[in-house]
């Protein structure tokens, strides 16, 4: 049985296939033993992809906002490894559309640490000019990291791709939050990007992945809240 | 003035054949037309207003010499209601057919078939009847200028209902565009009675003659544009090209206030106490319209009336949440004369004429005299007979309000509207539309836009900001310069980037943004599938329901089962007591004029004699126990009750302004260490309770006007109202599409909400145009900041504080509001409330 242990930093400490990891309220995963920070689905330049493809002028500040969030985590944790778990750019042209200032900030992330880009369906080729290693999947501390969760039982898999979100009811009030979702064996991370939406974890895309009861770690301001199946609602 | 024989013989004969003679205002409209003048006709319903508007066009078209080339549209008629455009088409066909006039009149709305639309494009009808949204689409047509080159006249129906709104802004811009296409075009407005016709004239009129010849194609090809001289448009010119024509007033309405069983309840919104008497009165009338202020009140009244309806009178229900089909059925039954009463909301404030209505009943206070005059106007369209109206106040303060409204209507003193300043999100949509239609030159478009009433004072800076927004999104970070939606062509003119941009604009035209609507369908179980749709409700409604809750809709009790996507599944629960959440009072704020009248009536004891005895007694004990404030004063009472301390004040400025005030006061009280616990507001008063007494507060300090500064900003930016306003503005301005970004990901809906966009924009560019628009809308529409500002100025130095040892008679209603919002139909809740009410009254009155 999975046990969630609240931590002083607002995160939740859990055992994932017997490996201890920390779920951060930012939506990132922290592996203390490896000094590694993992974030999924950053979708950099999602805003500008709407401008490029549809001529729709959404505020072009999503990359800046996502980088700000990332910087806060880096300042707090000083990771030696930074792993982007796929869909780091919203589309293949995203890297070329980066504002010069933001491209420099992204380059800076690789200074003094190992930067790894796992590829996703939105960015199948990985970045072309930015520093860092481009991989399909990674093994770390006995866990497997890849963008898209594989069907069937995959103990120790950490993935993104699905943008999990939970609709939570308590009494009369309802709220919808991005969340981690796990059964103690595998884990799906919430999307980290500023313009990323969420898919309800009661969708069958999730039920096909988890054998045991699903537990959600819902992101609140400064805390991850452990939420059991009884409080979950469909959209 | 023209004599009746000024009409062509054919028309004279037609009038005579119907046993009519042309009315004075119909002839006057003809005279204005012959003089080439625009006109605003103000006449009560049933005065032959529509015919007066069309008569000049019918005559002109009949006398028009034959031409070789097919003519374009001669007269464009615009109505805020689709149904009205279709109905007027039908009514117009009668004289055309009976006089055998060589005139083609056709309607075109969102419901018109594609084939007919295509034919209209190739062969324009002489008279085209349409809606403001269609006009916005016309303006974005390539070739619009040629299509409307022959336009002689535009008729705006129900002008009073449309001008003070974003739809009115868009329409005014459309008129400016048409005027540029057809400089000889006359503007005609048809309106119900309004307090200040000059405001409607200014909106309708062309403020400065559109610059002909100059502009398009000429000058300004360089990239450095010199703004035109910033002189404000001449005040004298505003609307002065629109003459005022008044229809005869008709008989004065007979307005009565119902005091059911000789008593007026202390508090409440439903007038439940009077329902039996209302039913008897409906029985005595031929056909009655029963107006209420919210759809929930409509459901409630409809249910109560049917419980009493032993004789099975055909009583129907009409409100905005019912499905369009259901509403049309009710309207059709009404037109056939098959109904004895319709319980309705503002959905029937205007629209198609029903001759047989002889009584209008207003349940709960009307909140404004102008709206009430329009509602009363729905009765008795024969001018010689007076309209009959009956007010049924639901509480004691409402009794005062109904009395004030009845007096105001008799004296024909209506509420004023503030002048309209055009919204910039609407302007952005219009600018994009213009670029879709044909290339424009910046300064020429600026002049054209300023000829529209709401935009007469538009600054060059704001105009440039809007154009930049349309082009690149208007961001400080210039990443979108290469994706511009409008670009400058070789001649230096602005034009839409490509066909995709044009197509996108056409999909998103209009200034109506309805809140997200949820379909209510019959169905239950775990995976409910497409059951029968019984209507729609705003998305917020179901957020307050838990599966299993019961509610009344379309006159029946339903159990709420589940919400799946945009469908709420419900099953009938005929034997359950409905649990009806979100039972609010009026959504309309009490008008400033009525509020001041109520304050005056309260203070002037001579006026009390006209009130029922229990209300007089209530006022008397208020004077003894606390105080009756002078006209210029605001009464504020502090008293303990139970373990709490209360602060109750009576600004009479409407629920919206009171709620904003209470929010801001609570923040201040919190800083003062008083420990505020909660508040409740109605149209008349607000009530804040706290852990510690509030008798010794510096009240002038507490109500100081600077609360509208930083406190307001800080609170507003976090509020859900801002997010909602932002979404509306962003939709209208074309920042986001009506079909949401992310929708292209079919199957698995990974959508992201406008809240994310709002949060990011607020953080990184807080002065962006869309945030300015949203703040403005939230401050006016949702928070009534202007009203609150006036109120704070008014009460400064005029707060009359009474420190009491117990609740006062005036405070009883607002004390009863605590906890009332839950459920009027809930038996246990009612019992608790009833006990609380007796307790409170015993305390307040001997």
Automatic annotation (TrEMBL), chain A:
InterPro entries: Calcineurin-like_PHP (IPR004843), Metallo-depent_PP-like (IPR029052), PdeM-like (IPR026336), Pesterase_MJ0037-like (IPR024173)
UniProt xrefs under SUPFAM superfamilies: Metallo-dependent phosphatases
GO terms of molecular function: hydrolase activity
One Pfam match: Metallophos
Domain Calcineurin-like phosphoesterase: 37-132
Protein name per Swiss-Prot or TrEMBL: Putative phosphoesterase
From TrEMBL, chain B:
SMART domains, A to Z: DEXDc (SM00487), HELICc (SM00490)
Domain Helicase C-terminal: 274-425
InterPro entries: ATP-dep_Helicase (IPR052511), DEAD/DEAH_box_helicase_dom (IPR011545), Helicase_ATP-bd (IPR014001), Helicase_C-like (IPR001650), Lhr-like (IPR017170), Lhr-like_DEAD/DEAH_assoc (IPR013701), Lhr_WH_dom (IPR045628), P-loop_NTPase (IPR027417)
Species this protein is from: Caulobacter vibrioides OR37
Family: Belongs to the Lhr helicase family. Lhr-Core subfamily.
Keyword presence, DNA-binding: yes
GO biological process: DNA repair
Span of domain Helicase ATP-binding: 30-212
Region (Disordered): 205-242
Protein name, as recorded: ATP dependent helicase, Lhr family
Record GO terms (molecular function): ATP binding; ATP hydrolysis activity; DNA binding; helicase activity
CDD domains associated with the record: SF2_C_LHR
Keywords: ATP-binding, DNA damage, DNA repair, DNA-binding, Helicase, Hydrolase, Isomerase, Nucleotide-binding
């Amino acid at each position: 049985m999975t046990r969630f242990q609240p931590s002083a930093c607002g995160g939740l400490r859990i055992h994932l296939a017997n490996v201890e990891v920390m779920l951060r309220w930012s939506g990132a995963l922290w592996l203390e033993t490896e000094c590694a920070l993992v974030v999924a689905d950053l979708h950099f330049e999602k805003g500008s992809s709407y401008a490029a493809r549809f001529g729709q002028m959404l505020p072009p500040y999503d990359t800046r906002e996502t980088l700000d969030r990332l910087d806060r985590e880096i300042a707090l944790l000083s990771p030696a490894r930074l792993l982007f778990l796929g869909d780091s750019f919203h589309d293949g042209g995203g890297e070329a559309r980066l504002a010069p200032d933001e491209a420099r900030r992204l380059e800076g992330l690789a200074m003094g640490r190992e930067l790894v880009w796992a590829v996703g369906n939105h960015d199948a080729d990985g970045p072309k000019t930015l520093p860092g290693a481009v991989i399909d999947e990674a093994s770390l501390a006995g866990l497997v990291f890849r963008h898209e969760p594989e069907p069937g039982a995959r103990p120790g898999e950490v993935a993104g791709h699905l943008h999990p979100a939970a609709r939570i009811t308590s009494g009369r009030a309802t709220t919808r939050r991005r969340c981690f979702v796990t059964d103690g064996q595998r884990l799906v991370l919430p999307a980290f990007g500023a313009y990323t939406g969420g898919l309800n974890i009661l969708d069958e895309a999730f039920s096909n992945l988890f054998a045991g009861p699903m537990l959600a770690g819902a992101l609140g301001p400064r805390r991850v809240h452990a939420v059991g199946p009884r409080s979950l609602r469909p959209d | 003035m023209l004599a009746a024989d000024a009409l062509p013989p054919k028309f004279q004969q037609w009038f005579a054949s119907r046993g009519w003679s042309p009315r004075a205002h119909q002839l006057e409209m003809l005279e204005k037309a012959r003089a080439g003048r625009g006109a605003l006709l103000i006449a009560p319903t049933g005065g032959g207003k529509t015919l007066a508007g069309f008569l000049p066009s019918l005559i002109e078209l009949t006398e028009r010499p034959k031409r070789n080339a097919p003519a374009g549209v001669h007269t464009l008629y615009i109505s805020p209601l689709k149904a009205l455009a279709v109905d007027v088409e039908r009514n117009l066909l009668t004289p055309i057919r009976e006089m055998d006039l060589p005139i083609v009149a056709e309607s075109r709305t969102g419901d018109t078939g594609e084939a007919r639309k295509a034919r209209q494009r190739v062969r324009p009808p002489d008279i085209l009847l349409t809606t403001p949204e269609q006009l916005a689409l016309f303006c974005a047509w390539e070739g619009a200028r040629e299509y409307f080159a022959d336009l002689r006249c535009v008729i705006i129906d129900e002008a009073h209902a449309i001008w003070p709104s974003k739809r009115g802004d868009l329409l005014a811009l459309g008129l400016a565009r048409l005027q540029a296409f057809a400089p000889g075009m006359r503007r005609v407005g048809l309106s119900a009675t309004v307090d200040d016709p000059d405001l409607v004239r200014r909106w309708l009129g062309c403020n400065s003659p559109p610059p002909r010849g100059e502009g398009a194609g000429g000058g300004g090809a360089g990239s450095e544009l010199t703004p035109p001289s910033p002189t404000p448009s001449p005040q004298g010119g505003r609307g002065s090209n629109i003459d005022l024509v008044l229809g005869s007033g008709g008989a004065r309405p007979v307005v009565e206030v119902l005091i059911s069983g000789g008593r007026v309840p202390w508090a409440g919104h439903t007038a439940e106490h009077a329902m039996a008497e209302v039913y008897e009165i409906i029985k005595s009338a031929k056909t009655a319209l029963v107006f209420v202020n919210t759809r929930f009140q409509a459901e409630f009244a409809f249910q109560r009336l049917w419980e009493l309806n032993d004789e099975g009178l055909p009583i129907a229900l009409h409100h905005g949440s019912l499905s369009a089909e259901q509403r049309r059925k009710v309207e059709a039954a009404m037109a056939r004369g098959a109904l004895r009463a319709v319980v309705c909301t503002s959905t029937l404030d205007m629209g198609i004429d029903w001759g047989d209505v002889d009584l209008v009943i207003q349940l709960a206070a009307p909140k404004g005299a102008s709206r009430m005059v329009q509602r009363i106007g729905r009765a008795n369209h024969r001018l010689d007979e007076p309209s009959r109206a009956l007010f049924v106040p639901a509480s004691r303060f409402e009794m005062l309000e109904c009395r004030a409204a009845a007096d105001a209507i008799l004296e024909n003193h209506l509420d004023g509207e503030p002048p309209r300043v055009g919204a910039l999100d609407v302007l952005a949509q219009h600018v994009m539309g213009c670029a879709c239609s044909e290339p424009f030159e910046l300064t020429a478009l600026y002049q054209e836009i300023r000829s529209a009433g709401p935009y007469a004072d538009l600054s060059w800076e704001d105009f440039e900001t809007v154009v930049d927004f349309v082009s690149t999104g208007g961001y400080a970070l210039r990443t979108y310069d290469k994706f511009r939606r409008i670009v400058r062509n070789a001649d230096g003119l602005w034009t839409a980037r490509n066909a995709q941009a044009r197509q996108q604009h056409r999909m998103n035209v209009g200034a109506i943004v309805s809140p997200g609507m949820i379909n209510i369908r019959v169905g239950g179980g775990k995976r409910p599938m497409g059951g029968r749709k019984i209507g729609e409700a705003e998305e917020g409604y179901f957020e307050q329901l838990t599966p299993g809750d019961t509610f009344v809709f379309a006159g029946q009790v339903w159990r709420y089962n589940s919400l799946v996507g945009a469908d709420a599944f419900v099953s009938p629960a005929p034997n359950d007591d409905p649990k009806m959440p979100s039972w609010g009072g009026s959504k309309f704020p009490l008008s400033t004029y009525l509020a001041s009248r109520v304050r005056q009536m309260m203070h002037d004891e001579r006026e009390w004699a006209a009130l029922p005895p229990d209300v007089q007694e209530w006022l008397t004990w208020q004077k003894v126990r606390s105080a009756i404030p002078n006209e210029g004063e605001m009464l504020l009472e502090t008293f303990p009750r139970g373990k709490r301390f209360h602060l109750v004040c009576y600004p009479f400025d409407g629920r919206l302004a009171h709620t904003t005030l209470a929010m801001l006061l609570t923040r201040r009280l919190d800083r003062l260490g008083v420990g505020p616990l909660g508040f409740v507001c109605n149209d008349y008063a607000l009530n804040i309770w706290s852990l510690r007494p509030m008798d010794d507060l510096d009240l002038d300090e507490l109500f100081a006007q600077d609360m509208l500064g930083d406190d307001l900003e800080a609170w507003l930016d976090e509020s859900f109202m801002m997010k909602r306003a932002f979404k509306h503005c962003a939709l209208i301005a074309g920042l986001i599409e009506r079909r949401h970004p992310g929708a292209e990901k079919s199957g698995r809906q990974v959508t992201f909400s406008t809240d994310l966009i709002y949060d990011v924009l607020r953080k990184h560019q807080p002065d962006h145009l869309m945030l300015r628009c949203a703040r403005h809308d939230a401050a006016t529409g949702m928070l009534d900041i202007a009203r609150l500002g006036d109120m704070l100025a008014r009460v400064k130095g005029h707060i009359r504080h009474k420190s009491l040892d117990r609740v006062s008679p005036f405070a009883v209603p607002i004390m009863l509001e605590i906890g009332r919002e839950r459920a009027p139909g809930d038996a246990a809740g009612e019992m608790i409330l009833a006990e609380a009410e007796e307790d409170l009254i015993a305390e307040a009155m001997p």
